[in-house]
Write a structure and sequence with these properties.
heterodimer; A: alpha+beta; eleven-stranded mixed β-sheet; two-stranded antiparallel ribbon; 11 helices; B: alpha+beta; Rossmann fold; Jelly Rolls; six-stranded mixed β-sheet
């Protein structure tokens, strides 16, 4: 026989209060999602380029602890890597952020220029693969459609100026911005060579920023990584994409206040949620104190009352989570569109916020509970 | 457990509030016995401890000193879940109905039924049946805010009664109700007492319902001052009226005298009063017979036999002389006694008559 669902009835008796309660918890959920989303987006954005490299392993300079650090290694290491068993290809990626300036009618802005072999397929970006052939033509580049809008018009065919010479935008791709790059432009390595050669750096192509290593099918990634590391001089390190991603995120997390700031934001959302949820639950408990005391008097144990309050907390957290999630999804779409930041709403991230929401309501439930447990049934007489 | 086991048995009950310096005794050596089916009304000024006594009987407070047995079970020393489970045997009715506003009448009643483990399959039927019996068959699915005060209190009564408790404890159940609803509530409790042997212990200030009680317990200052069976009290009044000493008292004063009398039991051949003793009590025979013995030259001789409705012991109280005869029980004897102070006070309410009586007694010498 089903029990009278007291928790649900008490919570929903006053419709308006119930809706406000859901909105309150939803707001806290939204806050947490927003802060957590910004944090993730910023970290995701810094490794978006790594994620798009078509290879299992990446070669970087031993000293490069952060992707934006201009610390290239000699191209020779790629040829040496090719000699190791199990390696199918080793492709260079060149990055120039310091000397690349995009001039448009709207002004001059620094932009991240990426040089690749157009035929290598080293970047898995669909726009690049589609338009790679265009890059064989001199003065043609591909432009990141998710760059900030400050770069002026970016439709294919637009003519602008990159580091002093005219370029034509031959197509677009979607990569996105990060902490340091407001926009991206991709060109062939020949184009890269001609644009960024300088008296101090006559042949930029000899200094590789990222070496992308693709393995033969079925190769054991870890054993080849070790073999490569042993075969190559110690001025480079061989990392899996996951390791490089983790190193990059750890850098931003630990060496900048970003991780803390947004972690703090999530914590604030959590605290706000606890306060809101506690308000709702304690009001409910206070309003029903004589009734709860009566339940105790007629023979309900504390255990039952504890269960009722915690059930209310659970219902609140689940019902508040849904609108919070929907609103957050909207926010992610909007921000992803407006800022070019990668706002991913993965199952894991939803799971984490859901757990935080449950914890939030459980904590406030337990605080509100003390009042129910201390109520003296003799007081109702 | 036999039917004669009292439903409530209170003995030597003391209770204190506070601790240490501020410890304050609120109940003093209380004794009370209530049998099955009785409706007991507890009256007394506020602060006299009647609600405290009720909460102790209901297991809502911890018994500190003395003993309380509910249907034969000692509740002193019960703690935690045992105490909680004991409370399930009792139906509680409060001054406020304390119904959940979010639940319908039937759901509120079900809350009490769901205390049973496992929950019976027919909870809805049982809840509906009790509500129907309380005249709420058309209000079963109404929430409290669409019920009248009397209807709400009836739902609360339904919740208290649905598990068929043998004891109902009620605190001012009629205080929040108009006269008609209040009378209805008492009527329901009375019917239950008659039909199911359900005992009710009701704390009230409501004089309108006193007439419905089987027993009235009056508390003053933490003590049970009088504990009177109402029918018994009427009988005593009848007998007292026949006494020449009390005949002139108003019915109100007679009732007061009756309420002050306490029942004493004597075995055959026990002396109730001894010749030559100082007089301390007045007696009225309720059951049994006594013989009156005068000491004639060292040999006690029977001069009279007294039986139900007869009285004795008044002379020594009125004249202040020692007892002039010995009264000895010749069968099992139940007699109501009245202490000297109360006796004098009762007579004092009828001063001219007192003079007259004194004359009568002096003439007889």
């Amino acid at each position: 026989m089903r029990r009278v669902p007291l928790a649900w009835k008490n919570l929903t008796h006053n419709r308006l209060r119930f809706v406000l309660a859901m909105a309150g918890v939803g707001f806290a959920v939204f806050l947490m999602f927003a802060q957590y989303g910004f944090r993730n987006a910023l970290f995701d954005s810094t490794v978006e380029l790594v994620r798009r490299l078509d290879g299992e392993l990446v070669l970087v300079n031993q000293l490069k602890y952060n992707l934006n650090l201009k610390e290239p290694f000699t191209r020779r290491r790629l040829y040496q890597a090719l000699a190791v068993d199990g390696v199918r290809s080793a492709q260079p990626v060149y990055i120039e952020s310091n000397f690349s300036e995009w001039r448009s009618p709207d002004g001059v802005r620094a932009i991240r220029a990426i040089g690749i072999d157009p035929d290598s397929g080293v970047l898995t970006l669909p726009g690049v693969q589609l338009n790679a052939r265009e890059l064989h033509v001199a003065d043609r580049v591909l432009f990141d459609a998710k760059s900030k809008p400050i770069f002026g018009p970016t439709e294919p065919g637009t003519i602008a100026e990159l580091s002093g010479d005219d370029v034509t935008i031959a197509g677009t791709f979607q990569l996105g911005t990060d902490f340091t790059a407001e926009g991206n432009v991709i060109m062939s390595q020949d184009e890269f060579q001609s644009r960024f050669a300088s008296p101090l750096n006559r042949d930029p192509l000899t200094k590789v920023d990222l070496g992308v290593i693709k393995l033969l099918p079925g190769a054991n990634i870890e054993s080849i990584r070790q073999r490569l590391q042993e075969a190559l001089p110690s001025d480079v390190k061989v990392m899996t994409k996951a390791e490089l991603t983790a190193q990059e995120i750890a850098f931003w997390q630990n060496s900048t206040p970003i991780g803390f700031a947004f972690g703090f934001g999530v914590a604030m959302g959590f605290v706000v949620g606890v306060v809101i949820c506690y308000q709702i639950l304690s009001t409910d408990v206070a309003d029903h104190l004589p009734e709860y005391a009566t339940l105790k008097a007629i023979g309900y144990p504390d255990r039952y009352l504890t269960r009722v309050v915690l059930q209310e907390a659970l219902i609140l957290s689940l019902l508040g989570f849904v609108p919070g999630l929907i609103a957050s999804w909207g926010l992610y779409q909007l921000l992803g569109y407006a800022t070019g930041l990668p706002m991913y709403l993965t199952i894991e991230r939803m799971g984490l916020v859901l757990i935080l929401t449950l914890a939030m309501c459980a904590i406030s439930g337990m605080i509100a509970l003390r009042k129910v447990q201390t109520v003296d049934p003799a007081e109702v007489f | 457990m036999s039917d004669s086991t009292p439903v409530v048995h209170v003995a030597g009950l003391n209770h204190y509030f506070g601790e240490g310096e501020t410890r304050n005794q609120v109940l003093f050596d209380n004794h009370l016995e209530v049998s099955a089916g009785e409706i007991v009304i507890m009256t007394g000024p506020s602060g006299s401890g009647k609600t405290t006594l009720l909460t102790l009987i209901g297991g809502l407070r911890t018994v500190q000193e003395g003993s309380i047995k509910i249907i034969g079970q000692e509740i002193r020393g019960l703690v935690g879940l045992d105490l909680v489970k004991m409370r399930r045997k009792i139906g509680f009715i409060f001054q406020a109905h304390n119904l959940f506003e979010s639940l319908t009448a039937i759901q509120n009643v079900r809350m009490a039924l769901e205390l049973n483990e496992p929950i019976p399959a027919d909870v809805d039927e049982r809840a509906a049946a009790i509500l129907t019996r309380l005249g709420l068959e058309h209000r079963i699915h109404y929430k409290p805010d669409s019920l009248s005060g009397g209807q709400r209190q009836r739902v609360a009564i339904g919740r208290a009664l649905v598990n068929k408790p043998r004891l109902i404890l009620a605190d001012e159940p009629t205080a929040a109700l108009d006269e008609k609803s209040g009378a209805e509530v008492i009527k329901i409790l009375k019917e239950l007492g008659q039909q199911e042997g359900c005992t009710s212990l009701i704390v009230t200030h409501d004089n309108r319902i006193l007439k419905d009680a089987d027993r009235i317990v009056n508390m003053v200052g933490g003590r049970i001052k009088s504990n009177v069976l109402v029918k018994e009290s009427l009988l005593i009044c009848e007998y007292l009226r026949k006494c020449v000493i009390f005949a002139a008292l108003t019915p109100d004063s007679l009732t007061q005298v009756a309420e002050k009398m306490t029942l004493e039991r004597f075995s055959p051949s026990m002396d109730v009063v001894r010749e030559g003793d100082q007089g301390d009590k007045f007696y009225l025979i309720r059951r049994g017979e006594v013989e009156v013995l005068y000491n004639k030259e060292g040999v006690p001789s029977r001069v009279n036999t007294l039986r139900e409705g007869d009285y004795f012991g008044e002379r020594a109280l009125m004249t202040g002389e020692p007892r002039n005869a010995t009264i000895r029980a010749i069968s099992d004897l139940e007699a109501y006694s009245l202490g000297n102070d109360d006796f004098q006070q009762a007579l004092g309410t009828s001063a001219p008559f007192l003079e007259q009586l004194r004359r009568v007694y002096f003439q007889r010498q």
